[in-house]
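Section 5.1 Outputs to date
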Amino acid sequence: MLLLIENLTKVYRGGFRKEGTVANDGICFSVAAGEIVGLLGHNGAGKTTLVNQIAGIAKPTSGTVRLSGRDVVADPDFARQECAFMPQAQARFDGVTPRQAIEVIARIRGAGRAAARARADELIEALDIGHWAKTSGERLSGGVRRLTSFAMAAAVPGRLMILDEPTNDVDPVRRRRLWEQVRMLGMTGCGVLLVTHNVVEAERSVDRLVILDKGRVVAEGTSADLRMGSAGLRLEVTLSLGALAPDSPGWVESSPLRQGQRWTVSLAQESAAAALEWAQGLRKAGHIEEFSLTPTSLEDAYVRIVDAGIPAEVERLAPRGDQHV
């Protein structure tokens, strides 16, 4: 196992945080070589504190972090050598161009001059930032700075790459290019730990998900695994202008969610025919403009898990394969 975290706890004892604040509480999970694991949770769930400990930047109060079998709490320098870390905060490289920044980091992490230059060329082309390759950092947009930060981390990624909200400010086209590069890193055997609060992005990009809430792991598994605990289908209707929200039919399995003109409920798969007939009747009568019936999303499952405050021992799902060894 590339990364193994067991009973990791971080309690802040003062400073700018409230005395005794528990940021991480008995966290356990793993990342295999070549696996892309998403660390999902709302702001303040403990994600950034956790990755700082994995990267050897912060020291846990208790618990263990093992990278390639070595204890990085006892040897944080090893973590810094083996991990490439893209932090949430924007990197500052005023007076330095993206090409220079990528090459310098590659050289610092052990690449020769020619290899560093070739890798910078490869990443600049793959991320489509060649137009700004020779532009000084202070003149770059937030999205290009973010892509450059990713390229700096990916230049020599080591055994484990940690990405903390990597696509903030990045446009949709280049965001897709970034995810292609992440997948390529996984294909070469690099483990990737992706920190995000973007549920849709996580569902499309990772092999497995770990959900944090209030510093604890409250769910773990593939996207399909996590959706299994939710109702099977989701019906969304767009109400006609001025129309009142309809009464909930008996087959509805969740309280209706009203957002402007949109009305959404969850239902079991066996109620699909009844839901379609009901929605078609409303549209024919002019009460709604359109409707859609789709499988329950990971976002629905995420909201259910976090809002319910389900304990980790209840919601943790059996991992696929030999992940905790």
